[in-house]
């Protein structure tokens, strides 16, 4: 979690949730063909796939792991948990 100047804390999942609201409510896009992200953007791609699996067809995280690293977010995240099974080719 990161603290902002106003004093409240936020993390990667909060950022992805805000992006999701922008995409679905403002841009009125219901399904994404692919999400490409590098570094922190790659972590966001993993979280999109986990949080909104029915709205994302594919992700391409580059230089990003589906786990939190030292100095960043603290909770471990399972590897593409939502893409296991028949969708996890």
From TrEMBL:
PANTHER family reported for this sequence: HOMOSERINE O-ACETYLTRANSFERASE
Q: What is this protein called?
A: Homoserine O-acetyltransferase
Q: Which UniProt keywords apply?
A: Transferase
Would I find Transferase among this entry's keywords? yes
Which GO terms are recorded in the biological process aspect for this UniProt protein? homoserine metabolic process; methionine biosynthetic process
Q: Name one GO molecular function term.
A: homoserine O-acetyltransferase activity
